[in-house]
Amino acid sequence: MTMTLALTAERFSHNESDYISDPFDFYAKMRAEQPAYQSDRVFGGAWLFFRHADCRHLIRDERLSNNRSDVPLRFLPPDRRVEFDDMVGVLGRWFAFHDGESHRRLRRYVHRGYQPLGGERLHRSIQATVDALLAGLPGDEFDLMSELAFPLPAIVIADLLGVPAEAHAELIRWTDDIAQLLGSTQVTEEFALRARASTEELVAFLSSAESLRSSERQGGLLHAMRAVGGPDDSLDDEDVIAQAALLLFAGTASIRYLIGNSVRAVDQAPPGAKELLVDPRTAPAAVEELLRYCNPVQFVGRVAREDFAYEYDDGRYAEIRAGQPVMLYTASANRDSDKFPRADELVLTRPLPNEHLTLGSGLHLCFGDPLVRATTRTALATLYTRLPHLRVPDQEIDWNNNLGFRGPQALRVVAA
To answer: What is the pLDDT, as a whole number, of residue 4?
Structure first.
C-alpha cells in the first residue's frame, strides 16, 4: 500500500480532490491507525469513524439522531443561517432526517404509496428507459455518463412519481445542487444560496398543477402519497412534496455514479465479469458486490443527541458531545478486511448475504434500495447483453466534486 504524504487526517475534507480521486488508501490508514478521529475540518468538529464494526454499530445507535438537515450550514455564522430557514424546512421534512415515531409514520406513508408501483411495473419502466437510451447512442464510442447514467435514474424516478419526465435535465440540476451542499464540507455562501434556489424550484415543480395532474392521471407515487390515509390520518401536501424531493435527490446521483463506478470496475475485473451480470442466476450476488465495492455514497451522517463515550478499541474512547456531527464512512467499512476477505478486490461471486453498509442498516435502511438494485442490475445486464465487447479506454477521470456522491462526471467507452 502506498500513501501520498499529503493525505493526512488533519487535511481530510469531502472536497479535496486528492481524497476524491482515490480515498481507499487513506481509509485503510485510518482503519489501522486512527479508526476514530475528531476533525476540525469536517463540520466544525465532527467525529469520524472508519471501521465496519463501529459504523454498523453507530448507524443503529439511538444516542445518535438523523435530525441533521442544518449541519451543512454550520460554516455560516448563526445570524446568517436564518436566511436558509425555508430550505432547511424542506429538508427537515424528509423522513430520512427524522427519528422515532415521526420517522416510522412518514416512512409508512411513503411505503404505502410506493408498494403498488414496485415489482413488475418498476421493472418495465426501468427496462423501457434503458432500451430507449441505448437505442439513441451516437456510435461505437460514447460518454456512458451523459448517454445513460445521468438521464436513466432521473427519468425512471420521474416516471415513478408520475411527473413529466421531459423535465429530467432540470431535475438533475436541482438535485445535484442539493447533493453538493449535503455531500460537502466546504461550500461557499454563494453556493448555499444556489442550493436554496434549486430547492425552491424543485418544490415548485413538484407542487405545480401540471405535476399533480400528471401524477393523478398516471397513478404515480406523488398522487398515491397524497391519497394515502383518511381525513384525520394523512400527510399534508408539504410533507408529500418533501418525500418526493427526497426520492429524487437520493436516487439520481447515487444510481448514476454507481453505474459509472461499476462499469470502470468491471472493465478492470478478470474475464467473465460481464457474463456474471447478464446471467440472472449470478446477477444478484454480483450487484451486491458492486454495491460494496463501487459505493458512490462514501458516508452516513448523524448528530449526537447527548454526551456519551463510545469505546472503539480496548480502553480507547471517543468523547462525543451533544449536537456534534458523527460521520460514518461506510465506503471505508466496505473495504474492511476484518469483515470481508479480499476486501480490496471486486469478487462478483462473493457469497450472499454481502453485509456491506452501502444502503445503511437497521431502521434507517435506505428506502430506495429496491430501486437502486433494480435500476443498476437492469442497466448493466442490458448494456453488456447489447454491447458484450464494451471497454473503458485509458483516460483521465473528472470526478464529481464531493465525497457525498463519488463518481465520474464523464466516462468514455468503446463498444466494439
So the answer is: 47
Tell whether 408 is covered by a domain: yes
Q: How far is CA 378 from CA 83, 174, 223, 259, 264, in A?
A: 43, 26, 26, 11, 17
Q: Any residues with CB less than 8 A from the CB of 236 and at least 6 apart, and which?
A: none
| Domain containing residue 161: CATH number | 1.10.630.10
Is the pLDDT reported for residue 24 higher than 50?
Answer: yes
What is the distance between the alpha carbons of residues 14 and 6, in angstroms, rounded to a whole number? 15
Q: In this structure, are residues 401 and 395 in contact, taking their beta carbons and an 8 Å threshold?
A: no
In this predicted structure, the answer to whether residue 196 has a pLDDT above a threshold of 90 is: yes
Per-residue pLDDT at 212 exceeds 70 = yes
Q: What is the span of the domain harbouring residue 56?
A: 17-414
3-state helix vs strand vs coil in the chain, percent to 5: 55, 10, 35
Cα four-point dihedral sign 286, 290, 293, 297: negative
Look at residue 292 and tell me if it is in a domain: yes
- pLDDT 10s digits, 140-150: 999 999 999 99
Q: How many domains does the chain have?
A: 1
- Answer whether 331's CB lies under 8 Å from 92's CB: no
What pLDDT digit, counting tens, does each position of 284-317 carry?
999 999 999 999 999 999 999 999 999 999 899 9
Question: How many Å apart are CA 239 and CA 218, to the nearest integer?
Answer: 21
Amino acid found at 279: D
**3, pLDDT greater than 80:** no
**Distance from C-alpha of 305 to C-alpha of 291, rounded to nearest angstrom:** 30
Sequence-separated (6 or more) residues with CB below 8 Å from residue 214:
162, 163, 164, 220
10 assigned to some structural domain:
no
Distance CA 289, CA 304 (A): 31
Mean pLDDT taken over the chain: 93
Contact 144, 260 (CB under 8 A): yes
Label residue 55 exposed, middle or buried (CB < 10 Å: 0-12, 13-18, 19+): buried
Q: Is there a domain that residue 6 lies in?
A: no
Given the C-alpha cell 402519497, which residue does it identify? 225
In the chain, the amino acid numbered 412 is R
- Which cell numbers hold the place of 105? 409514520
